[in-house]
């Protein structure tokens, strides 16, 4: 491993924190509280991790001022407002980066393609006609960059990624292994019992700082483009159909499927295993909890759900029996009828009392 | 881009429509009503797009006779019975096609494989023993065609597709990027607390005109073959387990999982995110709406569902609390008891009245 | 095909069964009861397959002693306690194995990598710095084995698999086509409306005899490792997020998503299309039926569910209308109120009778 160590004070400086204890303490890596050894630094993400921190073997801790006071048995601290953010920052200095630059001897690059001198193009990468690859971008082995695709600077395209459909990617984008971008959308016109293929003529536009996980499918548009705006983050095994538009900084968790022509606003969070039906609009700042199904547009910010949490199996089976009966039960009338009968009963009772 | 333009009259001829306006109007591309410019042609898919059509900058419109009469401000039309089908047809003339033919210098083809002279085999494609690739078939970069696989004519196999398990593909099939066909089915015999692998000896048969999206998994059969009949269309990220059989012209939307040995009939439509349990039969002409779960065979045509649409989160939480109570509520008796008590009450009331 | 035939007695010996009928009967393959021809052997997996067995053309049958007695029209049998297990064993002798060994001329192997002499490395495989590939391991075409990855002996890594993140794989592991192991986990710190990437420093550990299907995503850990223990089996299109730990011999069916830091016990079975929310613990011997959603830890063995089976669509629509009313219906009070009013009614009735 080519990671070097950092002095505690250096690290404090990097995260704009204050250093307490041994300024020259050598930190060799980040670690979890559970598995840390003496040469490691950990972060404490709130009061609920205090007992784990007490028990930890780590040599230094990233904490808030309040947390520091509760960890009197420890010596070395970096105090920050947001330990989780400081941790995120530090992961980048301990990350093993790909430092190779240039074009591998086995890469096949079309003569018309423009590749920045300081890009890295891995083994067996194929890059087609009129492609562009920007400065400091890394394209791992076996990636296939089809004709007319443009990739900006500081991007990371992992192994076995397919980018086709003349997709245009801006800067600082990360596309993880085995993802397909710009493949043909699922467009067919039904006619006389058969499906007639609609060749897809649109493309894909991906904004700055977008992250797409592994094994995702992001289809090209039918006529207009499929668009992921700046800062969108997408987990693994996610389907983005043709002509979808996703607003800035929206996050989509794994195994979610977004059907064709859906428009999702900014700053949304979509839980894993969700599905959104075609041609719907979802407003900004919408959160969907896990396994939600969206069948109507959502016009206002808020949190929405439709995934049911677990039941013990025999309880569940009895519940489903009731669910199958539910349609024929006039739920809204039951309480009304009960109230009405209660009134009748009371009236009868008082009548009887009067006649006593 | 190598697309040429077409005269309006030429396009009318291609879609068997009637041309109105400037017969020599040059059309450079298809476009959406929203984004069209003057050199583009659009289709109007029904009355609900009329206001968008009015506002569109397109130079020509594909419409029905009825729609044409309502677009008096426009000049150039092609009148057809089915504008959507005409649009589907036209996408093929504006599609940028792969015109290369022959075998790339870097492709590795086993000497026993038979490749049609006018096929295209992209860079780094690997083709194994006794494989066959038919006339006019395109195999994109990095595809892996394992031993004994046969592919018919006019097929398109995109980058990073794996075809193994001696799969047999007929003609005019499209397999999109990063899909795995013929990988080993998930077959294990449980014995003494361990899973004992069942090597899969069956294969995969894919009929004419089948379309499989990107990142799909279509496993080989255990003993018999997994079969996709003619005209089946499958979206992205779909799982087809071993020994599944899917009937002609059935469509399956994204992120659906079909478990082992399921038989699905003809002309079915399966909504996205659905799951079908193993060894079930589904009749012809069945439609499943999104996120359906099938746990019993379906013996008759019809539409079926079990996915729940979205609730506002606090409403949903209160609903789930009720769902957890539901099993113990004798739903079918409630109305009966209410009716019975109502009758008792009325009888009491009339008794009292009589005694007045 | 290079499969040879076996004498019935030989097969009986291989599965430790007893041979009845023609000991020298030549068996050329395993087959299903439905499609078997005379030179094939079938297994009969219980009484419910007896009529299919009667009608089968197979030349020999693997049965229990009890089943044999009910198949009086057949001659050749192998009698075992567990026909399904015997079948699993036999699939291995009829499987067409990859017999090639050595490193393909087109593979790119870093000089520091250690590859066993009897491993097979397919065309265009790329193997990075300090990698290890054990004895008798097969790595198919185009696989990408990134720096520091170690793979044990007798493994099978199929085409287009990506293994990165310095993952460590033990022995007898099978990873199917287009799966990504060790890609970066979905870790982002939200701050001032943006997502700040957390570089993932952990790795992936995969135990002996693990099987991972095609198009799966198994992410590397954030700090600690993602761990699949010995004997875990995973179907296709499954998401295993960072820091997940899965206990021995647990099975996970297709299209399931396990979110970050989940711990799943031993011998669990997780139905297809399920989702488990982050940071939960699931005990040993837990079974989840299909499309379950887990939102709380499960502390005891048992079977759990939350996926709803299919309804006819109009029935379903009416059910969902009721579901939307359900939150406001005081279910637990209804029966109590009914009982209470019943008692009141009866009291009134007896009062009236007394006064007659």
What's a quick, concise take on this entry?
In chain A, 19% of the residues lie in helices and 27% in strands. The first copy, chain A, is of the alpha/beta class and 356 residues long. Chain A has 3 domains: 6-94, MurE/MurF, N-terminal domain (Udp-n-acetylmuramoylalanyl-d-glutamate--2,6- Diaminopimelate Ligase, Chain: A, domain 1, 3-Layer(aba) Sandwich), CATH 3.40.1390; 102-304, 3 Solenoid (UDP N-Acetylglucosamine Acyltransferase, domain 1); 313-354.
Describe the structure.
3 copies of one chain form a homotrimer. In chain A, 56% of the residues are buried. The model of chain A has no long low-confidence stretch (mean pLDDT 96). Chain A folds into 3 domains: 89 residues, Udp-n-acetylmuramoylalanyl-d-glutamate--2,6- Diaminopimelate Ligase, Chain: A, domain 1; 203 residues, UDP N-Acetylglucosamine Acyltransferase, domain 1 (3 Solenoid), CATH 2.160.10; 42 residues. In chain A, helix 2 links the parallel strand 5 and strand 6. Helix content of chain A is 19%, strand content 27%. With 356 residues, chain A is α/β, with parallel strands linked by helices. In chain A, the strands form 6 sheets. An 11-stranded parallel β-sheet of chain A has the order 8-11-14-17-20-25-28-31-34-37-39, with no helix packed on it. Chain A has a 10-stranded parallel β-sheet with strand order 9-12-15-18-21-26-29-32-35-38, with no helix packed on it. At the A-B interface, strand 22, strand 23, strand 38, strand 39 and helix 5 of A face strand 4, helix 4, strand 40, helix 5 and helix 6 of B. Strand 39 of chain B pairs antiparallel with strand 40 of chain C, so a sheet runs across the interface.
């Amino acid at each position: 491993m080519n990671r070097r160590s950092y002095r505690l004070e250096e690290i404090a400086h990097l995260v704009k924190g204050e250093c307490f204890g041994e300024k020259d303490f050598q930190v060799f890596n980040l670690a979890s509280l559970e598995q840390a050894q003496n040469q490691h630094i950990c972060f404490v993400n709130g009061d609920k991790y205090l007992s784990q921190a007490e028990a930890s073997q780590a040599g230094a801790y990233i904490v808030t001022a309040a947390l520091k006071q509760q960890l009197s048995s420890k010596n070395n601290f970096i105090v920050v407002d947001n330990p989780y953010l400081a941790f995120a920052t530090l992961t980048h200095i301990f990350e093993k980066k790909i430092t190779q630059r240039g074009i591998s001897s086995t890469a096949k690059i079309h003569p018309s393609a423009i590749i920045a001198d300081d890009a890295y193009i891995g083994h067996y990468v194929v890059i087609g006609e009129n492609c562009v690859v920007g400065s400091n971008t890394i394209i791992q082995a076996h990636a296939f960059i089809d004709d007319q695709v443009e990739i900006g600077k500081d991007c990371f395209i992992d192994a076995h990624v397919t980018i086709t459909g003349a997709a245009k990617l801006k800067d600082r984008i990360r596309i993880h292994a085995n993802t397909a971008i710009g493949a043909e959308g699922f467009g067919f016109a039904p006619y006389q019992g058969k499906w007639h293929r609609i060749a897809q003529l649109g493309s894909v536009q991906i904004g700055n700082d977008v992250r797409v996980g592994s094994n995702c499918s992001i289809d090209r548009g039918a006529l207009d483009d499929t668009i992921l705006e700046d800062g969108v983050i997408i987990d693994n095994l996610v389907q983005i159909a043709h002509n979808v538009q996703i607003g800035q900084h929206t996050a989509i968790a794994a195994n979610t499927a977004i059907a064709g022509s859906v428009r999702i606003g900014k700053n949304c969070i979509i839980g894993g295993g969700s599905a959104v039906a075609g041609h719907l609009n979802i407003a900004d700042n919408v959160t969907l909890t896990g396994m939600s199904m969206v069948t109507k547009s959502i016009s206002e910010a808020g949190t929405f759900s439709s995934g049911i949490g677990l039941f013990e199996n025999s309880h569940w089976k009895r519940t489903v029996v009731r669910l199958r009966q539910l349609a024929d039960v006039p739920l809204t009338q039951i309480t009304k009828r009960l109230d009405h009968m209660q009134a009748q009963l009371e009236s009868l009772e008082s009548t009887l009392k009067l006649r006593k």
